[in-house]
Amino acid sequence: MSVGITSKILKGDTAVNSSVGGRIYSLLAARGTPKPYIVLYSDGGDPVSTMHEKTTTAYNSIIVACYGSNLTLVKSIAEKVRQALEHYKGTIDGEEVTWISWQGPNPEDYDEDLKLAVYEDNYRLTVRL
Q1: Could you read off the pLDDT of 37-66 as tens digits, one per residue?
Q2: Whose CA is closest to 66, among 123, 113, 5?
Q3: Could you tell me the sign of the dihedral formed by the alpha carbons of 10, 15, 16, 21, in that order?
Q4: I need a labelling partner for 109 at 20 to 30 A (CA). Which of 91, 94, 100, 119 fits?
Q5: CATH number of the domain bearing residue 109
Q6: Domains in the chain: how many in total?
Q7: Mind spelling out the 3-state secondary structure of the chain?
Q8: What is the domain range of residue 113?
C-alpha cells in the first residue's frame, strides 16, 4: 500500500522522474538496470492506536534508496525526492495521505568494484483508514 503510494507520488513529480529516467522500483531493481534509479521499500508500520477510540490512521516507514554512479548524483536525486515527499498531503488511488515526514538518512555507501553509490532516506507516511 504505502510503497505503491510513494511510487506514484515520485513518478508524478517531474523533477524526480526525469532525474532517474522514470526508473522507480518497488523492493528491487533488475540486475543491469541503467543508473541512476530509485528503489522503495517498507520498513514496517502499524495502525495508530488510541485507548478509547477505533484507530483512524496508520503509518508506514518507507525507505527511498537512490542509486547512481557517484555520491554527488545520488544526494542530488535524494534532495529532489525529499522536496516531493516531505509534508505531502493528498489522495492517491482513493488512499488519503495525511502526512509524510522525513525521518533522516541511513549511512551513504559507494562500491568501488560496482561503481555504484547509494543514499537512503527514511520517511514516515501516514494514511487515513
Answers
A1: 999 999 876 655 555 666 678 889 999 999
A2: 123
A3: positive
A4: 100
A5: 3.30.2000.30
A6: 1
A7: CHHHHHHHHHHHCHHHHHHCCCCEEECCCCCCCCCCEEEEEEEEEEECCCCCCCCCEEEEEEEEEEEECCHHHHHHHHHHHHHHHCCCCEEECCEEEEEEEEEEECCCEEECCCCEEEEEEEEEEEEEC
A8: 2-128
